[in-house]
Every structure is written in structure tokens, then in C-alpha cells.
Amino acid sequence: MPLPVDVLPWIFSSYSVDHIEVYAQPTRKPFQRSVHLIQQLPMAHGPYEKPIRPLTKQNVARLLKSDVTKIARRFEKLVRRELWTKEDPDRQVNWNDARVWEKINREGFYHRADEMLVSCGTVTVDQADSQRPKVLTVFNKNIGIYQLPKGRKNIDEGYLDAALRETAEEAGVAVRPLRLRFGSRSTPPKSVQVQNHARETNYGVEDKLTGITEGLSNESIGVSEYPDPATGAWRHIYWFAAKPLEGTKRDEARMTEEEDRKKFTTFWLSESEALSRLKLEDEKFMVQIVFAYVRSMSADDWTNSRERE
């Protein structure tokens, strides 16, 4: 894929998970850059070049020392948006520039509550830490497609709770959150006092330049957005990683609606099988994202994930 015009001067000479060597300019020698490995969600994006803030010697020294002007990405084939750090000199925001506000108004989306359809679903993986993980899918007999379990959020219900409930109701399989290591723009909670003792939980440390916190998390792994063909409402689907709670066998007692028991058939598929059978591209993407996170987990990550259940 061709590089965007604004990143062509950055020539990547070698890549590893933790470090990357680049040329600041084509004629200079490479220097070592630490990078933050993050993911992105599909959102609207436009080609607006922000005004360049003048760099002082102090700024230049900080940029060269902390290496924060560019972000290298894991899973490059799954990247949906270009991202940059707050210190990128080519992307500095002048809030007094009318073009900034014009871009927001031009590319932003906003809807009334009755024009939105908020749904939640899961990418549920059985034996995620094994050599043969399987993902939970359902076959919708009414429209003849394979899909991931999902459905509308109830009033006063949390997004994660809705995703877990909908999975049980559509697939007949009780599930629980699966903590994986990935980057999120949700803020990590502060330490809380429990009987005069601080309770520390390792959510990771937020990178103030990118706004990304990478750590073991059960936050949403991604969002789908598209117009609902049946109603015209703008549909948001918040996806979460999950795993079976008590086994993989379908239990129709968990499926509260007779219509769902008739409509859905439950299947556990390999990643390749799921990608070949799922109808919707956004659902294929979410499966790929979760399996990429699963493969990147270390033995210590799996241990810590289980301890925090």
C-alpha cells in the first residue's frame, strides 16, 4: 500500500516488536526509535494538514530523545486509520484556525437517540491459549448467513453486560470476558483505597503523547458502524473478547426467546473457517483482531489474565 504523502520522508530500514530504525531525513544516519504498538478503530478521516508549530531547541531535543513523532503499528494489515502523536510537528493543532473547526463539522457524525441503534456482541474464543482455538458463531436461518452473536443493548444496561447477555441468548452459550493485551484509549483507573490499603491493578500506564494505554483489558476491542437496512437507523456495534463460562455446548434454556431458538444454529469454527463463512466484513475484521491479540499473548500474559478473572 502506498505511503501517505506526509510520511514519505520517513524511510523504515528495520522493524521489530519493540524498536524500529528510521531515517529522519534521507541523508541522515538512522537513529533508534522506541515505538508504541497500538490499534485503531474505523472512523471518519480526512486529509487535513494541521499548521506546524515552530520547534525550539528544547522541543527538538525532546523529540529526538523520546522518539515520539511517529507511531509504528502492529498487525499492519488490520490498520483502519492513520494515527500520530501529540508531538508530531507536522500535526500540531492551532485551535484558532477556522479550518480545524470546519474539519470537525464536515467529517463528524451526530444523531438523535431515536436515530441510533446501539448493539453489543462478542468474539468468543474457546481455548484461546491453546494451539487450536475456536470462535463462536451462529447461523441465521432466516437470512441464510453466518454471523457473530450480537444484539441491542437494554436500557440501563452496560455495554459489556449486553454483549455477554446477547451471546448467551443467541448462541445458548454462557460467556465471560476474556482479558487480552492491546491498546485502548480508555483511561486507566486510579488506585483506590481498600481498608486503608491501596489496591493496585495492572492496567498499564497511559502514554500521554498518544493517549493509549496498553495492557491486559476487557475493554471493547472495536466498533462497527453502518446504516441498518431494516430501519434506516445508524447502527453502532461494540465488540468484546470473551470465552466460555461453563462449557461450549449449546443450552437452549439460556435462549430466552423462542424465535432465537428456531432462528439460530450454533457453530464453533477455526479462524480460517470463520473468515470464509462470515458474511459481514466488519465481523471478519473483529475475528482477525482478536486472534491477532491472542497470538501475541505471552505465557505471563495468560497467567495474569486468568488471575484477574
Characteristic terms for this protein:
single chain, 309 residues, 8-stranded mixed sheet, globular, disordered N terminus
Uncertain segments: 1-66, 196-200
The class by helix and strand makeup works out as alpha+beta
Q: Please write the string of helix (H) and strand (E) elements.
A: EEEHHEEEEHEEEEEEEEHEHHH
**Average pLDDT over all residues:** 80
- How many DSSP helices? 7
- DSSP strand count: 16
Report, as a whole number of angstroms, the end-to-end distance.
Answer: 40 Å
Based on CA atoms alone, the radius of gyration comes out at: 22 Å
> Percent range for helical residues?
10-25%
Taking the sheet with the most strands, its summary is: 8 strands, mixed
Q: Estimate the strand proportion.
A: 25-35%
Spatial shape: globular
Describe the structure.
The chain is α+β, with helices and mostly antiparallel strands and 309 residues long. The protein has seven helices and 16 strands. The strands form four sheets. Strands 4, 5, 6, 7, 8, 14, 15 and 16 form an eight-stranded mixed beta sheet that branches. A three-stranded antiparallel beta sheet has the order 1-2-3, with no helix packed on it. A three-stranded antiparallel beta sheet has the order 9-13-12. A hairpin with a 2-residue loop joins strand 10 (192-194) and strand 11. It is globular, with a radius of gyration of 22 Å. The chain starts with 10 loop residues before the first strand and ends with a helix.
